[in-house]
Amino acid sequence: MPHDSMDDAFTEGASRFRQPVGLFPPKPGKYNIVARSVLENELLQPRHPEAVDAYIREEILESVIKKGHVYVLSAPQYFKGKGKKLVKIGKAVNVGDRISQIKSTCGISDLQRVFDDKDTPHHLYWKVERLVHAELENSREPLQCDLHRRQNGAPTEHGEWFHVPEQVALEVVQRWRDFVNEDPYDGNGVLKSHWSEMLMGT
């Protein structure tokens, strides 16, 4: 398609969304106009066309090849007296922004990251998170969040919380991070034959 045709299509497509409708979900720490409205009201409200345009602009500019982190979070005071001390294991491009978001929306004021001296950003951070969650599945303990309630009034359950010691969670994260750092996938995202043979025992 010629560049001028692409430009026309882009302009026409963008103009279709200038009605103030809430089509796009907010992203943590970004798009303050959108994020603030969601924090104040769980239901997505109609948004000003300029807010929608800003979201589209930022989304287009954002890299499609991101590097992120898998983190372990603890909240000693929050869980004091609750019987069980849980840790949160999740992923984020910006861990600091993610912590701030959880503190604000879930009311866990002492949430902090467990120190990880081996942490490095990686483009397969989402794969690391999935592998960690799979290994610790039997220790998963969804957190009942009183500040996030469903339409029926019941508290929302956040599923990335686990009943394991901080050190155990950290060791599992580091082990699977080491695995992806071995570059086990080829350029098409398929597990390389060496690793596949090891996995299948051949």
From TrEMBL:
**Matches recorded under Pfam families:** T5orf172
Q: Which InterPro entries match?
A: Meiosis_regulatory, Phage_T5_Orf172_DNA-bd
Give the Bacteriophage T5 Orf172 DNA-binding domain ranges.
Answer: 81-176
Name recorded for this polypeptide: Bacteriophage T5 Orf172 DNA-binding domain-containing protein
Tell me the organism. Glonium stellatum
